[in-house]
Amino acid sequence: MRITRDFYLISSAARLLGMHPQTLRKYDRLGFVQPTRTVGSMRVYSGDELERLRLIKHLVDDLGINLAGVERLLSVADSVERMRRLGGPAAARADARRRFERELERLCEIVGLGRENGKG
């Protein structure tokens, strides 16, 4: 995950993405993105959120995936990202291993694999 200092109001984000601001509001309501809010309650999007919105746009517009499918794929992507963070030298520790296995079980549930299919 990269660190970014770029922030965009909804109108700028929509223009950069070639999307309607109402679509961005809908994706916020669905929980696909979580823009921060200004004191006046305006949505502010980070560069990382713009990347996530580009992915969503690609899934919907280019691949024809419906919003339920997008939700599932985003859940898988989030689980994979959490699993990546658990990797490396710390993965040898028992607590990291348990967290990794919990994430793997969660991922299997998301994609519809039963415990018997997801483990070994």
Which strands sit side by side, in order, in the main sheet? 1-3-2
Beta strand count: 3
Quickly count the helices.
Answer: 6
CATH architecture of the largest domain: Orthogonal Bundle
Query: What composes the largest sheet?
Result: 3 strands, antiparallel
- CATH class category name of the largest domain: Mainly Alpha
Taken as a percent bin, the fraction of beta residues is 5-15%
Total individual domains: 2
Instruction: Tell me, briefly, the overall form.
Output: globular
Order of helices and strands: EHHEEHHHH
Rg, Cα atoms, Å: 17 Å
Low-confidence stretches: 116-120
- Helical amount among residues, as a percent range? 55-70%
Alpha-carbon distance between the termini? Answer: 30 Å
**CATH-defined topology of the largest domain:** Multidrug-efflux Transporter Regulator, Chain: A, Domain 2
Helix and strand composition category: mainly alpha
Determine the mean pLDDT: 83
